[in-house]
Write a structure and sequence with these properties.
Length: 144
């Protein structure tokens, strides 16, 4: 691959992801935490990604997420070598009261298949107070 005006080593310039610690982000007044137990994912397996939302100032649970493009959130996961791509929507969790309908927090759970071992970066999109936010998390998925 040759690009005019670029004189660099393409292999040396590839992404090198380092897993995050801790898995906590803040965006538009919301604190978002990836709360998986155990905290290790395995490459080649289906996983649940559990995100917990709290108000950044009061630390109270957030239950007023708004649907964005029909879902409580969207998750994009990309492998370090950019050959594997996953787009996921959260499960539709319901409240104990069947008449109350689905909730917009405080937790949303995504099912995803990590196709192979390696490092992955995930971008979570959610909407609250009519503002769309995106946060990212980087994690490892070693071989079993």
């Amino acid at each position: 691959l040759v690009t005019a005006g670029v004189d660099s080593d393409l292999v040396a310039s590839q992404a090198r992801l380092t897993p995050d610690t801790p898995w906590v982000r803040t965006a538009n007044g919301a604190k978002i935490e990836l709360v998986n137990e155990p905290t290790e994912f395995l490459g080649g397996e289906e996983i649940d990604l559990i995100f917990r939302f709290k108000d950044a100032s009061s630390d109270m649970p957030i239950t007023d997420l708004q649907r964005y493009l029909g879902a409580w959130g969207h998750l994009l996961i990309l492998s370090e070598d950019m050959t594997e791509y996953v787009h996921a929507h959260p499960r539709e969790e319901t409240q104990p009261d069947p008449n109350a309908g689905p909730t917009g927090g405080p937790e949303i759970i995504f099912d995803a298949l990590l196709p192979k071992p390696g490092h992955y970066k995930a971008w979570l999109q959610f909407q609250r107070n009519d503002r769309l936010s995106t946060v990212s998390f980087t994690f490892a998925a070693p071989r079993q």
